[in-house]
Amino acid sequence: MIPQPQVRHDQAPVTESDLLLQVRDLRTYFRLDEGMLKAVDGISFNVYRNRVLGMVGESGCGKSVTAQSILQIVPKPGVVQGEMLWHRDGQTVDIGGLDPESEEMRAIRGNEIAMIFQEPMTAFSPVHTVGNQLMEAYFVHGKLDEAEARARAVELLDLVGIPAADRRVDEYTFQLSGGMRQRAMIAMAMMNRPRMLIADEPTTALDVTIQAQILRLIRRLQAETGAAVLFISHNLGAVANLANDVAVMYRGKIVEFGTVRQVLKNPQHPYTVALLQSIPGFGYRRGDRLQSIRGSVGVPIDPPDECPFRGRCDRFDPALCGGSMPASVEVEPGHQVACVLYEARS
Ligand SMILES: Nc1ncnc2c1ncn2[C@@H]1O[C@H](COP(=O)(O)OP(=O)(O)O)[C@@H](O)[C@H]1O
Ligand SMILES: [Mg+2]
């Protein structure tokens, strides 16, 4: 018997005052010799306080570039277009319009929006102690009391479950196990009480037991701080556990969006269905075999204006699927699907 993953119960309905980030028609393109690589191609979504948005999709679908775009850390020659309205205390800033190097963007990055990565070693320097790096994260944002910074570093290391935090604070990251390093990176991300946390495949490099612990930790911190979380993962079980809403990305587009229950219990887009059938526990009926999705995502260089999934789709119909990229259709309140099967019906 394959256990059904638990699906998180939706929290109280979202309100406009909980709206933290509005991403509108985000496009992140890389001009390469081969042509224009459209890593993210016109996506829109909202991020709310006290809510976790899961982002799923196979490798190469544009999840990490979405995260990099929000923080304005897309490597060259990437160009980010579109609106990213960041709301704070009655004020709205369009991150999309900020110079990545500007004072304002630096203040947002790390201070208001923090990020944790798959590989903690890339976030830490090997030549400074864990404590000094946590304190540095604090100083960068102009909070200058050393004793206070150190106390906060110890408090956070303790909060994320590092035993003997007052001693470990003076160790180097190579002295920590993989799981402890991941906890230390989460502590670093939380130093400045960010209002939004972006976690990009935070548990992929860890073994299963440690993965579960880190997921519980993220969930607890989110609940305690009321922060918004953008949780990027190809692990649908983890997303089911942690997220309230899910965006399914395919080749730079959001092809399905809704609450966890809507998307994972009642998937509509053929890509979501295929994704769920490819892993144990979801969309799996007794007697069915797990099916891997044939073909691969490919690289979206000068992609034609058409459904990006058509070449791999079980439901492909030449009479229906020949046109341009299908528009997103609301199939039930809050549940959107960009597939011609639904477009034709509406
Ligand atoms: N720095 C870069 N330069 C050029 N292409 C990139 C760069 N980063 C990502 N890409 C391309 O953008 C697409 C999306 O990548 P990515 O966001 O990393 O996918 P995911 O995180 O969903 O696995 C891929 O086709 C990838 O090859
Ligand atoms: Mg990625």
In words, what does this structure look like?
The protein has twelve helices and twelve strands. It has helices at residues 63-71, 103-108, 120-123, 130-139, 146-159, 165-168, 178-190, 208-225, 236-242, 260-265, 270-277, 340-343; strands at 19-32, 35-48, 52-56, 78-88, 91-94, 113-116, 196-200, 228-232, 245-250, 253-259, 329-332, 335-337. Strand 7 (196-200), helix 8 and strand 8 (228-232) form a beta-alpha-beta unit. The longest helix is centred in the middle third of the chain and has 18 residues, at 208-225. The protein starts with 18 loop residues before the first strand and ends with a helix. The structure holds adenosine-5'-diphosphate and magnesium ion.
